[in-house]
Amino acid sequence: MDPMQQYLEEFATQIARPEEEPANQDLSRWQSRFGYSPSEALVIIERLRADINGRMLSDDQWNLIRAGREAEGYDRETYEHQLQLWSTDPHSHHCPKTPVEVNDTSSYIFTLGGPFPDIESLRRAVGISAEARSGQGEEGDTDFACVDGAAKRVIEDWLGTQSPPINYRPTFIRLSQAPKNLSENSSYPTLGIDSTLPQHRMQGINHSFAPAPKEIPVWYFFYGTLMDPQTLQNCISIPTPPILTPASIKGGVLRTWGRKYKALVDGPATAHVDGYAYRVLLPEHEEYLRFRETEAYEVVRCRITLHGEEGIQEKVLGLTFRFARHDELDVDQL
Predict the structure, then answer these.
(1) Helices vs strands, H then E, count in the chain
(2) How far apart are CA 225 and CA 234, in angstroms?
(3) CB-based burial of residue 140 (10 Å sphere; 0-12 exposed, 13-18 middle, 19+ buried)?
(4) DSSP letters of 140-198?
């Protein structure tokens, strides 16, 4: 199944919350995120947990964005509440929005409705291009629009300037995906290598760099939770546990961010990281992996050493996920 299609179908499906007593740390998080008093936070948490139709994110959708949102201080409930606030009052003092930068290359989806019942009405009203998507929810087919960051800003501005005001605010869900921008004319980007240097550029008309941008099958090197076969199986939605090969790479070192997430960054040529390698066979499997890692990471080239039985080694050209936010590394790891 197309990973975007599955993503949208999960977005369209609403699941009930189990009721449980809010913990003190939950109340503290709500107070710090939204400025609620303890009693206000308690009432809102209990109301949300009792609302069987209140969930805005499916389990798999939350897993796709979890790492980035937890690093920002959210848990699932507070982030869903944040989305609800944005959808009902985008100018709420509880949820100041991060301005969309001119070069925002993120993609967003939202459910079509209100003045935008379909893609064509969105194009006529706002004058932007958008991609139509559909998913199967509990109440039938659900139509979505997929837009970039600039189009998102245009839609929000248009809705905010209508007179009389329009009582409709779409909930934008950012598709946080590890970027993959492999150059065909140089080794960029490669772990541990300054690929802007002349020796790492194309040397002739027949010179090529591997893996190619759209090469499939392709080897991936994992160094974190994806080394667990069950985790990887769930991530790429395959029926049987994947076969992982013990492997290592050079040119990188491991750091941490958010006090618990592993972050691979460039290191000296002699630096050594152990892990496991997996040969990704389908484009949609690679898409699942990139969604899971989020835009906190980027896909880069690397040279992988496969460690077989009886000490047999094989070197292959592959890919891995390099951490892209150096300013968010844990300070004691710098």
Answers:
(1) 9, 11
(2) 12
(3) exposed
(4) EEEEEEEEEHHHHHHHHHHHHT-SSPP------EEE--------SSB--SBTT--TTSG
Q: Which residue from 138, 114, 179 is spatially nearest to 325, judged by alpha carbons? A: 179
Question: Residue 41 corresponds to which amino acid?
Answer: A
Distance (Å, rounded) from C-alpha 153 to C-alpha 176?
17
The pair of three-digit structure tokens given for residue 323, joined into one six-digit string: 């951490």
| Cα separations in angstroms, 100 against 68, 105, 157, 297 | 17, 10, 11, 20
What's the angle, vertex CA 326, arms to CA 325 and CA 331, rounded to 5?
Answer: 125
The one-letter amino acid code at 254 reads: L
CA-closest candidate to residue 209, choices 317, 98, 331, 85:
317
DSSP 103: T
Alpha helices in the chain (DSSP H): 3-12, 24-34, 38-50, 59-71, 76-88, 119-126, 149-160, 229-236, 283-293
Query: In the predicted model, is pLDDT for residue 95 greater than 50?
Result: no
pTM reported for the whole predicted model: 0.62
* Residue 79 · residue 54 · CB < 8 Å: no
Gap between the Cα atoms of 204 and 200, Å rounded: 12
**DSSP reduced 3-state for 214:** coil
Judged by DSSP in three states, 314 sits in strand
Band of residue 270 on the pLDDT scale cut at 50, 70, 90: very high
pLDDT band (50, 70, 90) for residue 64: low
How far apart, in whole angstroms, are the C-alpha atoms of residue 301 and residue 320?
A: 6
| Bridge partners, 298 (sequence order) | 322
Closest CA to 226 of 175, 290, 271, 316: 290
Which residues contact residue 334 at a Cβ distance below 8 angstroms, ignoring those fewer than 6 apart? 255
Phi, psi of 215 (to 5 degrees): -70, 130
Per-residue pLDDT of 219-252, as tens digits, reads 999 999 999 999 999 999 999 999 999 999 999 9
Q: Position of tokens 């691979």?
A: 264
